[in-house]
Every structure is written in C-alpha cells, then in structure tokens.
C-alpha cells in the first residue's frame, strides 16, 4: 500500500470508526482496511453484497465544446467517441509512453466529462490535465474551449458490489427511476436520486462482480451511507475495507497502480495495448510517438516483458517483488500475489519475459529461498457467472 506523509480523512471516517474499522494509510488517506474478517468481507462481495468507501479517489470535471477533443489529446483513448451516459477505461501517459495513471472517464452530458483517477495520483492527474489544456490550446491555435474543475475534495464515492447490489440500489430509488437502474449497462452512468440524495450512479467497479458506484457531495455522504446500509438489511450487505478490495481485484485480474502499473511500464507490457487508440484517433496525443514506436518494436508481444497471471501449484502464496524463476534463472518479478479465497489456491500477477508468457508454461517463484511451482494462466483468474 502507498505511504504518504499526509493524513486525510473521508467524510465517512466517523462511520467507519463507529463500526470498529482498522485503518491504514493509502495514498495519504486514512482508509478502512477491514472491519472484522477480511475473508468474510471478500466472500460477502462474491456471494451477497459489500459496501465500500472509495472517497479517496479523484474527480476532475472536464467541460466545454472542446472537452472531447481535449481528452483525446490528453489521454491515450478516443474519449470523444463515448456516448452520453457511457464510460470508458483509459490511461494518461507521459511523452515516453510510461503510465502516469489508469482512470475511468464518464460522459455525463454532451460537453461534460468526469475523469476519475486513483487516490494517490489524483493531484498529479489534475495537474497534468491543466498543463495539457494549455498545450492543447496552443495546438488548436485559437485556444481551448474547455475548462477543468478538480472536485476531488468535495466529492465522496460509495460502492455497492456483489450479486445483491442491484436489489439494494433499487430499494433506494423512487419507483419511476427503477428502470434507470435495471437498464443501466456495465460502464454506464445516470444522474438520479438515491434515498432523496442527488447522485451520479455508475455501473462500474473493481471487484469482478456486478455493482454500482455512487458519486455524492461530501455533505450528503453520511446520509447516503446510512441509507445504503439500511437498504442492505436483510440482503446481507457487509461493509468492506481495502484488504478485501485488493483480493477481489486480484482474482478479477485487474491492475493496481503502484503494483502492475507505473511510470516505468507502457500499456503494451501491461496488456493494455487495446486502450491506446493509435489507429482510430487522428491527430497528436501525449505519448503517441513513443507508444507507436513501442508497438512497432513488439513491446509486450515479441520483446521485453509481459504481465501474466500465475496460478500456484502448491499451497504457499507469492508476494509483491518476489522473483519469478525458470530453471533457476530469474525471468520476472511478482507484482501482486496472495491466496485466492474464492478459488482456493494462490494467485499472482507478474511481469515475465515474453518468451515464457504463454498459458501453460511452468515457472517457479522464489518464496524466501525456496522455489515453489507456479503456472502461467489466462486472466482473469475469476469470472462471475452472468
């Protein structure tokens, strides 16, 4: 987990303390690690429903007639192609192609986008967008008809994840808005009222389960949290911390910035080359030249290292920074790893040499001096039944 010198608290901090949460520093925020058993919290998300405070995430509004074109320039994807009410996963990269952050972009209205970066990178991303706005203005010669507003400090984010998530959210909305919930597709969002509180409701998540994320003003966050908990009574809703969030996202094969993603990694090595719109997007964007060169060089496919999933063939779990071995020689490094509560065996993500990245390849991980057997497998490790 990220360490920082600051000690920021979300608007829901007292709610977590009252529930007996154990706290940890994450991206400079004091966040609930777990409330009781992290295993029970993990299983609740897989079997019933879990409730998360994600208010440490960033929120940057990008608005104006040039908002879509600006985001096409600032990020690697074609964000102008997002339909209103939909969302897209994207990356913000440096000029050399290194990943500054991964993020989700929601198109809330024709000229109104919401960019959601990770907690530890929120200020960095907001600053990068501001500097790129100036460069974009110079690029289009007439100045950019786009404005930015960093709303991170005034916005809370609550997530409900798991098989019972839709039923819980339906209990919060007026009957006439029920269809807006049931008809909401994955990676889509709608503005409505939940328990009388205005929210942006998104069908997104980081657990591998169906679920929703609710963006809400800080001053209404505690009210909404209590309402969600009340709606979850009888539906086995369990408050969940970052420990279970990490094990859930690992089973789902989802990368974590600071582990799988960093400034030293390009999208191609991380298996995210499909996010980069080199063909579908006309004009320049930050990092385009370097990313085109990386693709032409076969980065992550014919050269260098590639992010893969590893299944443990024994009982011991690999951990971050452990060496991956082939015939006694190091061929990679683990980025995340732990026992899978759902699958019953150890799983890990690792960067390994491309030559040995195919599923079925037998490798070892150096677990504190002892080589333990692992096998490369296709991601994700866990995929929910539709």
Automatic annotation (TrEMBL):
Domain (Aminomethyltransferase C-terminal): residue spans on this chain: 305-383
Catalysed reactions, as listed in the record: N(6)-[(R)-S(8)-aminomethyldihydrolipoyl]-L-lysyl-[protein] + (6S)-5,6,7,8-tetrahydrofolate = N(6)-[(R)-dihydrolipoyl]-L-lysyl-[protein] + (6R)-5,10-methylene-5,6,7,8-tetrahydrofolate + NH4(+)
Domain of life according to the entry: Bacteria
Name this protein carries in UniProt: Aminomethyltransferase
Task performed by this protein: The glycine cleavage system catalyzes the degradation of glycine.
EC code: 2.1.2.10
Family: Belongs to the GcvT family.
Keywords on record: Aminotransferase, Transferase
Pfam family, one: GCV_T
Gene that produces this protein: gcvT
Signal sequence annotation: none
Subunit-structure text: The glycine cleavage system is composed of four proteins: P, T, L and H.
First-level EC class: transferase
HAMAP family found in the cross-reference section: GcvT
Example GO molecular function: aminomethyltransferase activity
InterPro entries listed in its UniProt record: GcvT, GcvT/YgfZ/DmdA, GcvT/YgfZ_C, GcvT_bac, GcvT_C, GCVT_N, TrmE/GcvT-like
Domain GCVT N-terminal per the UniProt entry, residue ranges: 12-279
